[in-house]
Inverse folding.
């Protein structure tokens, strides 16, 4: 079995097949071995940590809602985020998914000041509207959930970077774009060793 950490760039689909000829996919980022697939997804307009493996059991365990593995996102949002919005995010907000209301689980929210390189293309800037960086740690992963949650409290997402899955973080790439890791190291960091 093989295990890879990837810092997925903006504008890349979390898959190997192209939907349109102009799409960039994981195949354009790195020459992964056959039968290695991403565990979960990041939207095309999201960046950050992605795990890839040919270990179907690991894939299954990480994607089961009952296991509730933590995922931490660093999110740049429009506007100055106040205590009311922070408290609402922390308590869990109601969002719409597939035409139905979904109450998100509670979230750990912190204001942060990360040092990310500017994104290409750059995010939109508004001269008279500030922005805020938040760290959001979730234990569920619904479609575009972070973006929907931030919009629900009045702060649209400008940039979204997945920083961590469990105890595995972007820092574990040690400055590399892709890093292959061993099963014992990964299982320990994900809390899968019993």
């Amino acid at each position: 079995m093989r295990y890879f950490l990837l810092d997925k760039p903006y504008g890349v689909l979390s898959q190997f097949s192209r939907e349109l000829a102009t799409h960039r996919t994981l195949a354009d980022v790195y020459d992964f071995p056959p039968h290695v697939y991403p565990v979960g997804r990041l939207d095309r307009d999201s960046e950050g940590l992605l795990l890839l493996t040919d270990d179907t059991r690991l894939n299954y365990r990480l994607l089961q809602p009952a296991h509730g593995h933590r995922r931490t996102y660093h999110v740049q949002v429009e506007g100055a985020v106040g205590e009311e919005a922070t408290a609402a995010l922390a308590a869990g907000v109601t969002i719409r998914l597939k035409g139905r209301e979904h109450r998100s689980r509670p979230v750990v929210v912190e204001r942060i000041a990360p040092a990310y390189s500017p994104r290409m293309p750059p995010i939109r800037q508004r001269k008279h509207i500030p922005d805020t960086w938040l760290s959001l740690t979730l234990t569920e992963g619904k479609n575009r959930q972070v973006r929907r949650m931030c919009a629900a409290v009045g702060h649209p997402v400008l940039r979204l970077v997945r920083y961590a899955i469990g105890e595995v973080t972007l820092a574990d790439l040690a400055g590399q774009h892709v890093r292959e890791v061993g099963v014992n190291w990964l299982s320990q960091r994900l809390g899968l060793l019993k």
About this structure: The chain has two domains: 1-67+167-194, 70-165. The chain has five helices and eleven strands.
